[in-house]
């Protein structure tokens, strides 16, 4: 077991009394509670943590927080494995298993590193330039590219853990729990407002946890702990540590990802791994802090190059020495406290190299006391070493910062180079909210712009707003929290919390922004801007030379800022370099769009519990269990599960469907028709309403009558059909297609509410109130007579397209003499709860007629044999009634929805597709539905189709296959031969009437 | 994710509603009298303004009622919510 060779003897927020064992690339090491995987790796002397995306360059940890671009690992194993997790975000636990990514065969010896040597072949836009042609080779290229250039692999087996979703409302959502956010939450909380405080980190305190500052004469961490303890007790404040605010959407809707159990070896029983919060906040305070930028110089990606702020955090928070001998390189004051922290931790500080002409005076005394040399007006020109930093080369830049003054170079041995290129306020979420950002030229970063039209109820405070001093953060955070609560309608009674006093900080001297440090001209050295996407300063300059002007295009061309870190450390440097190359101000270049999520989100969190059986509701009819007992195979129809067919032992689907289809024509079939949409329509104007909705006339329909109707959209195209019965003067029972029921009800409602509010009509869905058994076949009347004593079912007393109330097998029922098979049919409706009893009674009494339950497939065969259309199969939203030969259904006497469109020139042209029957020359061949009809006998593409097959079945009643099709001008082509493009061949078929059997006894 | 105030149910999240597109499109009283272009305008043509859009929404997962919304397509600010059958409201500049 490796010992923590870089662990400091004391200091930090870790519990040295407890050891946590973990595995990295199979090697066992240990850390302590309070560590992240990153700090534990550093403590164990691990500097090489991954290989870069494109060039496979060795990479180490650069940051200590969420901006880390390099330290991406595969965390956990098996179904729990998660790729591309930042080591800096992983809370260490006992038994943690992590592996490095994008290397083969091993991290230290990676064959892909040949890409680095070949890098002159991989300039910006390389993939676009090289693999564009021929287009059909792209899949082959892609397979290789994906293997070579990439990140981690997803788990191959299902994730055994649970993910949850939760909604919440609050008055004030505070994002970020550094000094600003803690003060904001404290002050907002004192008003009684409902507050949510969310922070990515496992502990509250933000930068205070790592930078060694003081509040009220104590380490600032103590103050943060104190506020945390106070907030925990407040009932109106919800604290969400380990929670990343991923997205900021309209009207203050934010999504949060809470990593509930990611810090445990596995979730405890019933505990979700992660929880997705959807929060609607009246007011938002963004206290998202700032991120340190690296400086862009040759080989600035070598393991051992780190942010100065990260160096401080590793020392102060984790008690880890990030190196033995350090050089710091800065363009601003931030490196100085880091130099002091390093020296105090026992690291030899070889030099602080400052780009500015004069080093700031404020730090002079402390530096002198610790014996730290400052080299002002100098730059680190390059880094030496491959798998780790071994030395840096130092020189002097000219006044413009564009070249090197010769003769002043020197070399310093070191194993740590701490960079500070200044700070970038973290405004991703603000930008997502719709707010504009403005470039502050003097300070060299974007700040919140003037509240524009898109402004939401949001405030930005602290470092995110460019106010970096700790005292400012504490006071401005408090003010923002208080004001947000006030705006949400809450006022504090009595005095506010005492204002904490931060230790005095020197006023920082202005930075010297130099976006790219000129190198010494060695070809093999690369100055990285975006470490995660492997984009160098030279790539950006090349893009500018090639004519790219828009930063959005530069981003897509070079891929800068397109990694999982969304360019957190690279965006501003990239803008600066592009602006310089284009010779325009940075403000004119602007910034790329910030899009959610702020950090990667697992699919598990997005899916939540909506997986497997909970993906979508399943609707079952009351007779479902009877069908199961009968061996039914089900098919989904919308959300419904319907029996598809009922195979007997030894039967395949074709045999079962043949048997069922024959039975319905020769003796007796029984189908569960419960899923048909049913809408109860009542009101004085119900008949008038139906007259406007359906294409045919409804006023003449008498009591007890049923009528088939077609519904059109205003574009004249069929969108639903069904039979509607008149139950009473102002009372109708409408049926719709199974899949269209909800849409039809919406359609009816929209006309009633918005266009015809004066019609007295009320629509209610009763689909689930009625169970429906469709009895059909020549013996239907015989069986029903037996079960309905006293009811005259003769053709004269109970004709086709009428209904009667009665009792079937002792159950109150509405019996409709309608059907969808062309056979003598009765559709028996009983209250849903009586469905199983009705079904049983029909099956039992029908045994003497060999009653045969049939599923949707046999229903399709039966209805297509007699030429009944199926909406959604014979129609696709472009089909008029006349196209289907249903012109007789269209009333000329009244207006109805869509009527005027039927008179448009396009609706009346002669070559519209018409519904026809097709009999293929080979009676055994069942052509696939959707197959194209072609004019000639040559199926070679490309050619223009003249129609398509809409339905295609084998019919046991016909003893052959048959099909329905939409064919251009088809009504004029009966008897002709067309061809069906199928499997590369042109299959000949004869065009027929779209009806293959005459209906049985139905109108008698 | 818009926050819409249903006139009957109050503030609800966008996912409870469906948007029915542009409001104040009146169905012609005598469609047969219109030429193809005029009828086509009614059926197909819709405004796509940058700025204030008057549109219909339905609280489909709630009370089921339709109502009208004036919304800025730039900022998504809800400028007015009013019942079907009423004229476009006066909006502050």
Structural overview:
The complex is a heterodimer of chains A (1004) and B (93). Chain A has 1004 residues and is of the alpha+beta class. Chain A has seven domains: 20-124, Roll (Ubiquitin-like (UB roll)), CATH 3.10.20.440; 163-290 and 425-487, FAD/NAD(P)-binding domain, CATH 3.50.50.60; 294-421, FAD/NAD(P)-binding domain; 527-615, BFD-like [2Fe-2S]-binding domain (Arc Repressor Mutant, subunit A); 677-768, Aminomethyltransferase beta-barrel domains (Alpha-Beta Plaits); 772-796 and 807-849; 907-992, Elongation Factor Tu (Ef-tu), domain 3. In chain A, 22% of the residues lie in helices and 27% in strands. Chain A contains 24 helices and 49 strands. In chain A, the strands form 13 sheets. In chain A, strands 8, 9, 12, 13, 14, 15 and 28 form a seven-stranded mixed β-sheet that branches. In chain A, a hairpin with a 2-residue loop joins strand 48 and strand 49. The longest helix of chain A has 18 residues, at 470-487. The termini of chain A are far apart. The relative contact order of chain A is 0.07. Chain B has one domain (3-82): Folate-binding superfamily (Folate-binding fold), CATH 3.30.2270. Helix content of chain B is 10%, strand content 34%. In chain B, the strands form two sheets. Chain B has a four-stranded antiparallel β-sheet with strand order 3-4-5-6, with no helix packed on it. Chain B has a two-stranded antiparallel ribbon with strand order 1-2. Chain B is globular. The two termini of chain B are 25 Å apart.
From the coordinates shown, what is the CATH architecture of chain B? 2-Layer Sandwich
Specify the overall morphology of chain A.
elongated
Task: Give the count of helical stretches of chain B.
Answer: 1
For the report, how would you describe the main beta sheet of chain A?
Answer: 7 strands, mixed
What integer value in Å does the Rg of chain A equal?
38 Å
Strand content of chain A: 25-35%
Based on the coordinates given, report the CATH architecture of the largest domain in chain A. Answer: 3-Layer(bba) Sandwich
**What is the third-level CATH name, the topology of the largest domain in chain A?**
FAD/NAD(P)-binding domain
Indicate the CATH topology of chain B: Folate-binding fold
Give me the CATH superfamily of chain B.
Folate-binding superfamily
Strand order of the largest sheet of chain B: 3-4-5-6
Low-pLDDT runs of 5+ residues of chain A are none
Classify the helix fraction of chain A into a percent range: 10-25%
User: At the first level of CATH, what is the class of the largest domain in chain A?
Assistant: Alpha Beta
Mean pLDDT of chain A: 93
State the CATH class of chain B: Alpha Beta
Characterize the biggest β-sheet of chain B. 4 strands, antiparallel
**Most extensive chain interface and residues per partner:** A-B, 28 and 32 residues
> Can you count the beta strands of chain B?
6
Beta-strand content of chain B: 25-35%
Poorly predicted runs of 5 or more residues of chain B: none
